[in-house]
Design goal:
Layout lengths: L2 E5 L2 E4 L4 E8 L2 E12 L6 E6 L5 E3 L7 E6 L4 E6 L8 E12 L5 E7 L3 E6 L1
């Protein structure tokens, strides 16, 4: 069983900073891509930032220059440093990992896993 547990959300004033973290645990063989998505009320879930195992990053245009994604492969952790936050960054933030995990049968399966989400609220 694979779990992704997020932490670090909260309430912050515009211009402030927050750091989100997500740790994957379970019968994991290897992790490919890790990333952060967000969903604001009434809107679709969107990619915020992603990071491959090779270190390539991808950011939404709206967060470029303000957010930085990083990962610690030894700890199966991905983090998102968010600076100069704006009210429009308010959303539930979800961690996603594409990884190989061992099933109860003993075989390995590649799949995408999601965290439970953490609320980020930016007040004006």
């Amino acid at each position: 069983q694979v779990q992704l547990v997020e932490s670090g959300g909260g309430l912050v004033q515009a211009g402030g900073s927050l750091r989100l973290s997500c740790t994957a645990s379970g019968s994991i063989l290897s992790i490919n891509n890790m990333g952060w998505y967000r969903q604001a009320p009434g809107k679709q879930r969107e990619l915020v930032a992603s990071l491959t195992s090779g270190g390539s990053t991808n950011y939404a245009d709206s967060v470029k220059g303000r957010f930085t994604i990083s990962r610690d492969n030894a700890k199966n952790t991905v983090s998102l440093q968010m600076n100069n936050l704006k009210p429009e960054d308010t959303a539930v933030y979800y961690c996603k990992a594409g990884l190989w995990a061992r099933m109860n049968s003993g075989s390995y399966v590649s799949n995408d896993y999601w965290g439970q989400g953490t609320q980020v609220t930016v007040s004006s």
